[in-house]
């Protein structure tokens, strides 16, 4: 008789299946200043603006500085839920929110998942759902 019993459990926490998170909007719309953190962007813009370099280079550096804007997507989703339809449409076009998978495909926002599927097909790996 063994000293202890080994219980075999199936590990179900890892899967190839991707499920979208369920979102419930808050009752209160966030303020505009809550949607993103501009601190690093503003610092870079000040340094670029006071620099003594050609305008063409300044313009390029200003574009690069925008990548330091930190978006709070949870707050953006809450803002979207309370926004007017035109604002919602523009937010969807900018991929600040992705509401409909078909629109995401049409707008080119799910190319990565298609590429991953192609790689999996080439290597002979199948997802759990395809088995």
Which terms summarize this structure?
extended; 2 strands; 131 residues; single chain; 6 helices; mainly alpha; two-stranded antiparallel sheet
Your description of this structure?
There is one protein chain. The protein is mainly alpha-helical and 131 residues long. The chain has a domain at 29-82. The protein is 47% helix and 3% strand. The chain contains six helices and two strands, in the order βααβαααα. The chain has helices at 39-50, 55-65, 73-82, 85-93, 101-106, 111-123; strands at 36-37, 70-71. The chain has a two-stranded antiparallel sheet with strand order 1-2. The protein starts with 35 loop residues before the first strand and ends in an 8-residue tail after the last helix.
**How many extended strands?**
2
CA distance, first residue to last residue = 39 Å
The fraction of residues in strands falls at under 5%
- What spatial order of strands do you see in the largest sheet? 1-2
- In terms of quaternary structure, the protein is single chain
Q: What do the pLDDT scores average to?
A: 82
- Count of alpha/pi helices: 6
Structural class: mainly alpha
Low-confidence stretches: none
Overall, the morphology is extended
* Helix and strand run: EHHEHHHH
Rg computed from alpha carbons, rounded to a whole number of angstroms:
23 Å
